[in-house]
Specification:
Elements (H helix, E strand, L loop, with lengths): L1 H5 L20 H14 L3 E9 L5 E12 L5 E11 L3 E3 L3
Antiparallel strand pairs: 1-2, 2-3, 3-4
Length: 94
C-alpha cells in the first residue's frame, strides 16, 4: 500500500516518524485519535488525513485500524486493516 499509494519503496518508510508523513494541519487530529484509541484499547474508523507522497504532494487517506494485543492482553500497537484513497480507489492490507 505504501508504494502504490504514496510512492515509497520497500524499506524507505521504515524507522521513520509516521507523523513526518502526515500533513502538518492533520497531525493534531491524528495524534488525538491515536491517543484516545490507546487509552481505550480500541481502534478507529473513518479517520481522514493527508499523507505526503514521495513526490511532495499529498493524498487524502481514510483509515480504519484495530488494536494489537499481546498474549497478556496489553496493547502493543495498531493494525490498519483498510485504507481508502479519497478518489474512491480502495486498498486492503494485512
Amino acid at each position: 500500500m505504501v508504494e502504490s499509494v504514496l510512492g515509497y519503496g520497500p524499506g524507505e518508510a521504515v524507522d521513520q516518524d509516521m507523523f513526518g508523513f502526515v500533513h502538518g494541519e492533520d497531525v493534531r487530529k491524528v495524534r488525538t485519535v491515536m491517543a484516545r484509541a490507546s487509552r481505550e484499547r480500541a481502534g478507529w474508523s473513518l479517520l481522514v488525513a493527508r499523507h505526503r507522497h514521495k513526490d511532495g504532494s499529498y493524498r487524502s487517506l481514510e483509515s480504519n485500524a484495530l488494536p494489537i494485543l499481546d498474549d497478556s492482553g496489553a496493547m502493543i500497537g495498531f493494525r490498519a486493516h483498510r485504507a481508502t484513497v479519497r478518489n474512491d480507489e480502495t486498498w486492503s492490507f494485512n
